[in-house]
Amino acid sequence: MDWKPDRKAKKAIYKQLADHIENGITDGTFPTDKPLPPERQLANQLNINRSTVVAAYDVLVSNGLIERKRGSGTNICKDIWGITKTRIPSWNRYVEAGSFLPNLPVMQRIRKEMVAPNIINLASGELSEDLFPTKFFREISSTRTFAGSLGYDHPQGNEILRKTITEHVKKYRGIETSPASILITSGAQQALHLVVQCLLKPGDAIALEDPSYHYGLTVFKSAGLRPFFLPADKEGINPDDLLSLHKRHRIKMIFLNPAFQNPTGAYLNKDRRKKILEISSEHGIPVVEDDPYSLTSFTGERAIPLKSTEYHGNVLYISSLSKIVASGLRIGWIIAPIPVIERLSDAKQQVDFGHASFNQWIANDFLDSDLFDDHINNLVKQLESRRNQIVTSLDTFLKTEVNFNVPQGGIHLWCKLKKEHYEAKLLEESIKRGVIYVPGSTMGSKKGYVRFTFARENEENIHEGIKRFSEALHSIG
Predict the structure, then answer these.
(1) 60, 114, 286, 402: least CB-packed within 10 angstroms?
(2) Which CATH number fits domain 13-97: 1.10.287.80, 1.20.272.10, 3.30.70.20, 1.10.10.10?
(3) Model confidence over 291-327: pLDDT tens digits?
């Protein structure tokens, strides 16, 4: 066999080998009257592990291309193209060929470990179970009669809920809007997907914060967009950088998380907000404001969304109940000009025929009751306590080895390691010790950062998690 694996390719070697043999079967390189090389012989010939050959052969067996028989080796199925055997599709090729890209391998690894038993989870952006308003939801569902319909609802979402959200954003976020300008979505993530898929086209240039949650999202790559990154400090992005970027690349849309940003916890200051809105208005560039955390201010001062200070429809406002109430409720919303809402609503109908009516009913009654205020007040108190704990734990175990700004709201702490370390090795060592977090490379271009999230674990576990991370860091030098 003259073929050799490409060790620099992203595709695993066993997949490369399986593809090569499959192609060879198709073009006759591997004739059906001769067995394939024994596993050990092929491994020696290609200078790879025997387990790699075994994995490749397993793929080909599952696809119906080869068969193993004790005493006669590994043979190509003689009736691949006949009627006695149905050929199984090459699912690996289909999986890799789809236009919607998978998550980064490191994020897949993190999500897999999140559900492992006894792991301390400083990675997930989800609230812990004890912070969900479960008691309040039980009270609502047991004392109030479901007044909605179990059929398909309005394409934009239940009208009563949209009216309630109109009142909610006016009271808590200072945003004036109408039910006709609101679309109910399955969390903020679906809202973001709809905006990208419906309002942008391949080749469009967009501006993202660096670092940011949006940095590693494959939705932008899947849509063929050209992302350009704006450095962010503790007060957000610099509007001058945005203007310079637009002059060079003709930015079509700006994606911002102005209040207690993920991952830095930064709060975009007043002067920068004003300048960004001026740039948006002058050049006609829409701003997509992602606002999951503005109600979690620890200082007692209200966090002001960009949307509340602009009146021309330049800002598409996205928010949800996922980060402040319950992730499983799957209630988010977009506030935008009516033609935009109608376009996004049409697309959502094509995907899921509208949102679940029962969830909308629960969300409406919760937002419309005094229980919401009680919940938010308790949530902010608990999150601030956990924020204080992670700061104390970092000072205890890593005082001379890390730098960070203390966030005044939200659920994330962005931490700079003073000494450079091999990121993958540090993550694996941390997992071995029972703690998971998000490596900085998935959220920004600068090296040596990690994101710790303090909403998922209680104070005791946060302290233990930072201790385990410290041990992992010290163990790798």
Answers:
(1) 114
(2) 1.10.10.10
(3) 999 999 999 999 999 999 988 899 999 999 999 999 9
Please tell me whether residue 384 adopts helix, strand or coil conformation: helix
The Cα–Cα gap between 444 and 446 comes to 6
Q: Find all residues with CB under 8 Å of 44, minimum gap 6, and list them.
A: none
φ and ψ of 55, to 5 deg: -65, -40
Question: Residue 236: enclosing H or E segment and its boundaries?
Answer: strand 236-237
Query: What are residue 67's phi and psi, to 5 degrees?
Result: -140, 145
Please state, in angstroms and rounded to a whole number, the distance separating the CA atoms of residues 262 and 50. Answer: 44
DSSP string, 220-277: HHHTT-EEEEEEEETTEE-HHHHHHHHHHH---EEEE--SS-TTT-----HHHHHHHH
* CATH number at 105-125+374-475: 3.90.1150.10
Q: What predicted TM-score, i.e. pTM, was given to this entire model?
A: 0.84
Burial of 371 (0-12, 13-18, 19+ CB in 10 A): middle
Predicted local distance difference test score (pLDDT) of residue 83: 47
